[in-house]
Specification:
The protein is α+β, with helices and mostly antiparallel strands and 84 residues long. 20% of the residues lie in helices and 43% in strands. It has one domain: GTP cyclohydrolase I feedback regulatory protein GFRP (Gtp Cyclohydrolase I Feedback Regulatory Protein, Chain: K). The strands form two sheets. Strands 1-6-5 form a three-stranded antiparallel β-sheet, covered by helices on one side. Strands 2-4-3 form a three-stranded antiparallel β-sheet. This is GTP cyclohydrolase 1 feedback regulatory protein.
Length: 84
């Protein structure tokens, strides 16, 4: 899986950070220390870490990921990363 999206709410920029969905690589999620959660009302799971996005981006860079783009969507910050 060469592409990865991470996101956080603007008011939660110190964490937690969403790092994957139910189809994400379990090994990568384990390396990041992510836990799988299902939010009340959703019929899908997401992986979260308690770290700030900056810390997650640093970890992913050390694993070979590079930021492709970043944007704000409403009150959410989203980063797209890619690994060769």
């Amino acid at each position: 899986m060469p592409y990865l999206l991470i996101s956080t709410q603007i008011r939660l920029e110190a964490g937690p950070t969403m790092v994957g969905d139910e189809h994400s690589d379990p090994h990568l999620m384990s390396i990041l220390g992510a836990t799988k959660r299902t939010t009340l009302g959703n019929n899908f799971c997401e992986y979260y870490v308690n770290d700030a996005p900056r810390m997650v981006l640093d970890k992913l860079e050390s694993l070979g990921y590079r930021v492709v783009s970043m944007t704000g969507v409403g009150q959410t910050l989203v980063w797209c990363l890619h690994r060769e």
